[in-house]
Amino acid sequence: MRDAAFGSYPPHDRTAEIVGALPGPCDAVAFMPGHTVVAADVDQDWLYDKLKYQQNRESNDPSTGLGLFLAAMADRLGNPPMYASVLTVAPHRAAMRRGQLTEQGGAHRGWADYRTDVRSYRYTAGTTQGNVDMGIGPGGRWDVYVRVDSSQQGGGGPSRELLSTALTMVPAGEQLFGSAPVHDTRALRTMLSGGFTPICTEVLFLTRPQG
Questions:
Q1: 206 within some domain
Q2: Are residues 154 and 187 in the same domain?
Q3: pLDDT tens digit sequence for 13-71
Q4: Is residue 204 domain-resident?
Q5: Are residues 140 and 67 in the same domain?
Q6: Is the separation of the CB atoms in 198 and 88 below 8 Å?
């Protein structure tokens, strides 16, 4: 993921590789251009059997059958909850924060359950108010989830301000990852307008829930 954040992708060879289960609560599958990465305890023969349709289809065939593969993957892992998203990334940004950050509880459970070391912050800057959730995602990466107050929804400005603030919260030289649910185009537009770049489609399987 870190390499992809800098534009260095795996080869476009229409294959899949297994990197094994990662620390944390989730197994994961990342669909990159022409390459699939599986972070789970599955064997290569099983994986290739479930992905034969990708190997045999023509390059101009728009069908992928990924839904069938994800269903088989979920069944293999015990049908845990799934979190499917477009994964985006942006680099640390050294900038002055316009508002005040106060650490608090109450991170978004639907997002936090898939991360570790989650912290939630309340952000206030004039009329802009919301929450910034930070946590550690698969592979030890920095993940973010922002929520503006309901009274300010409908415009992207407050969300972009929260994302800009979040980029100052990761160490210099690090990348910050944000997940836009695959069904939420508004969330994806917000990430793009906030300076985040899409790098892959990712599906997280909550196989080892924490507490």
A1: no
A2: yes
A3: 888 899 999 999 999 999 998 889 999 999 999 998 888 766 666 656 555 667 888 99
A4: no
A5: no
A6: yes
